[in-house]
Specification:
The structure is a single chain. By secondary structure, the chain is mainly α. The chain contains 3 helices and no strands. α1 runs antiparallel to α2. Keywords: Membrane, Transmembrane, Transmembrane helix.
């Protein structure tokens, strides 16, 4: 079921990039920060997709 959410994210991200690239850059930056923080604090939870 994980690929469905990946496709949905791709569509949403493509829409955001088309409409507002600055918003996309902000979202991408926060995603990187969140994922790195999640990696450091909860590695088991993060890798269990």
């Amino acid at each position: 079921m994980h690929w469905i959410s990946l496709i949905t994210e791709s569509i949403v991200l493509g829409y955001i990039v088309g409409k507002c690239p600055a918003l996309f850059a902000t979202l991408q930056l926060s995603l990187i920060i969140i994922s790195s923080a999640t990696n450091n604090t909860m590695p088991n939870l993060y890798h269990r997709h």
